[in-house]
Structure formats: C-alpha cells, structure tokens
C-alpha cells in the first residue's frame, strides 16, 4: 500500500481524538454552569480561549513541523491534551478551568492539528483534495461520536471523572496514531501519488515547488484567504458551543440537544468525503465561495428554527458545509504557495480561525446574557459569512483553480 494513505489514516485518527475531545465541551456545558454558578458568557469563554489557542499555536507548530518533522510535534500535542483534561478534572473554579482545560486543550490541538494535516499534502498531487477530505473527516467522526460518549460518561460518572477517562483514551489512541505520521515521501524513495524514485520516474513539478512563509505573507492571495477564514470563523464555532443551550431553551431535553451537536459532525463527514473529493474535479475557488454561501444560508435557517426536526436539518447541513470548508483550506494553500512551507502557511492561515473562535462563541454568550436571545449574534454571523463569500470570489479571480 502507498504509504501516503497510511498518513491519511493516521491523521484521520489523530483529528478524531483531538477534535472529538474539543467538541465534547458541549456535553459538559450545563454541568459547568451548575457546578460554578456561571453565566453562559463565562462558560463559553472556556471553549473560546481553547479554540483561540489551538489555532494560534498551530502557526508555530506548523513551522516546527516543517523544520523537525511532524511526528514529534503531534506527539507533544497529544500529551498536552491528556494533561489538560487530567488537570481540569480537579479544577475548583472556572478560572482554574481557563488555565487547565483551555490552555491544555488549546496547546494539545494546536500542536497536533496543523502538523498532521500539513503532513498529508506532500504525499499527493492528483488526489490531494480527496486525501485531505478523508484525513480531516476524522474531525467529523470525532464530532459525531465523542460528544455522545461524553454525555453518557457525564451521566454515569460526572464531568470530573469523564475528563479523566477522555484523557486516558486520548493519550493511548492519539499517541499510537501519531507514530505513523510522516511528511517526506522522498525519505521512503517515493514521489507523490505513489510513484517510486527508483523506477526512473521524474519528480512531479510540484514536489519542489513553493515559496517560503515570509514570501507567502507578502501576497494578496494569502490575506484574501486569511480574511475569508476570519469572517467565517466568527459564526462557524457558535453552534458547537451554543446549540445545546439554544435547544434547551426551545424545550428539548439535554440528550436531544447534545445529539444535535453530534449531527453537525455527521454532516461534516459528508462534506469532507463528498465535497473534498469534488474539489479535485471542479474549480476549487468556485467551491470555496459556495461553501461560505451554504453556511450563511444555514445560519439564516437556524435563526428561525426551534423544532427538533428543523434543528436537526440545520445541524446536518451546516456540518456538511463546515466539513467542506475544513477540507478545502489545505489544498487551497498548497495550490497557492506550494509544498516548501505548507504546514507553516496553513498554521498562520488558521490564526484567522483562532481569532474568530475567540470572538464568536464568547460574544454570543454575552449577547444572550444581556438580551436572553441569540438573534443578534446569529444575524451578525450571517453578514460576516457573506463577506467571506465576497473574499473567496476575489481569491478565485486571483487565480485559484
């Protein structure tokens, strides 16, 4: 078997673990509100800081992976994740959760995410979109499975013991998967897509192509992509934190509310598999803009939905477009900037998502505390998502295919 597909499988498993843990936060939202007598804005900030950190740390982790190889950086990330959960299980205040959960999970996901996704890109040219889609589908699987498991654990053992169980599982499963991650086909005598260096094949043109990170930062294309991710990110992470309390406010039981978050993960698997592969067959720039438009439409649908069927439809379709968004970003970066510093470029691009994650869920929680409604933050997110559409179309005109 071509080793590139093993890297895809290993990355899939790592992302399943780290994002499954991160997105299981929704299953503990109500318990943390009760335990610390906290407002929704205060509890939302736990996840907002975590998300901000893991995208910001990714900028440095990507550069470390380009220099030292991804395996060590990903293993460090798994260790940070498990340690953060274990320490958070003993938190005596919400402030302690900011230090343990937010920083531990933030460092863990940040060190593991970008290096593992970046490691996939040099192994493929012709099927890069499909490979990226399959790899990042691990996020969707984790988002679908782990919150449901976490909710069951919380019901049976409480949130503290659940954090300890998740820590142990992440350390074992994530650590094993991280050992298989590599980013240099040439070290195995291979070229992208499985060609062997010893068979007399010439290296594909894209193998050595690419610009350094500092050169990418000087281009208009980089900042168009960065701006689109930031505008999208404000609303992108709101459902992962607030869909559970939103559904509870609409009269639905806790188990149903947590299931809705898992349905986002189910939809994202469709987006990553189907639309990720589609990106190899149609113009990537057009698909990129269409994905933002789809998320804007789904946020508008959320704004008027309260019934369980409508919320389930929102969750699945929003997840589909979200999954495609995640699957598209690494191939777009590779198209624009090449393989030389691809992990570093992806990491810096994802700082835009980190800023969006810091602002969106927290502001939505504060807005709810002030108005007892999510209408204003959801409406603002729709406008910003449409701005992302405009920026993606400008990027397309800049030559992304």
What does this entry show, briefly?
By secondary structure, the chain is mainly α.
* Overall geometry: globular
Helix content: over 70%
CATH architecture descriptor:
Up-down Bundle
CATH topology: Growth Hormone, Chain: A
Helix count, DSSP H or I runs of 4 or more residues: 16
SSE order: HHHHHHHHHHHHHHHH
Q: For this structure, what is the CATH homologous superfamily?
A: MFS general substrate transporter like domains
Main beta sheet: strand number and arrangement?
Answer: none
- Return the average pLDDT rounded to an integer: 88
Number of domains: 1
- Indicate the proportion of strand residues: under 5%
Query: What is the highest CATH level, the class?
Result: Mainly Alpha
Low-confidence spans: pLDDT under 50, at least 5 residues?
none
Beta-strand segment tally: 0
- Could you tell me how far the N terminus lies from the C terminus, measured between alpha carbons in angstroms? 29 Å
| Rg (C-alpha, Å) | 20 Å
Structural class by helix and strand composition? mainly alpha
Structure characterization notes:
The protein is mostly helical and 401 residues long. The protein has a single domain, classed as Growth Hormone, Chain: A (Up-down Bundle), CATH 1.20.1250. The protein is 79% helix and 0% strand. It is built from 16 helices and no strands. Helix 2 runs parallel beside helix 6, helix 3 runs antiparallel to helix 14 and helix 10 runs antiparallel to helix 11. The longest helix has 30 residues. The protein is globular, with a radius of gyration of 20 Å. The two termini are 29 Å apart. The model has no long low-confidence stretch (mean pLDDT 88).
